[in-house]
Amino acid sequence: MKSVFLISCLMVLSGVSTAVSAEKYYKWVDKNGVTHYSETKPADVPTTLIKVKAGNPMPEKAVVSVAVNSNDNSEKPSVLETPQPTEQQLATQRKNCSKASSKLIALENAGRVRQLDQQSGEYRYLPNQEKLAEISKMRQYLKANCGDR
Questions:
Q1: pLDDT at residue 107 above 70?
Q2: Mean of the pLDDT values across residues 9-38?
Q3: HEC profile for the chain?
């Protein structure tokens, strides 16, 4: 039961986002036609400043805006897709989805659910209303992050 409680704590913590400031990145094309992205501006190459809007994640369509091309003083707003997640990020997401799915199955099939109370340090049984709220949270997490498993 400790693992169920730890998993639920991790799920809550992963869902809480902290304030993140917007990041600046530079985009340029080298002499071979290869596009590069970097946090530092290269010296003698024309670049495009890209400001990434941070904050609340938008799972369906993540958008960044292109600010100003350093060769050109006119602004050219456009929309770019964010880079694809790395294999490590995908593996972590699959692992979290698997844990959430297991927790949902356990919550749905358990008659009574016992959790450790953080304040008193003692175990308590969840009332049916709290159990249903936890089930709802797990379903929402799975729908938003795991393709509605």
A1: yes
A2: 70
A3: CHHHHHHHHHHHHHHCCCCCCCEEEEEEECCCCCEEEECCCCCCCCCEEEEECCCCCCCCCCEEEEEEECCCCCECCCEEECCCCCHHHHHHHHHHHHHHHHHHHHHHHCCCCEEECCCCCCEEECCHHHHHHHHHHHHHHHHHHCCCC
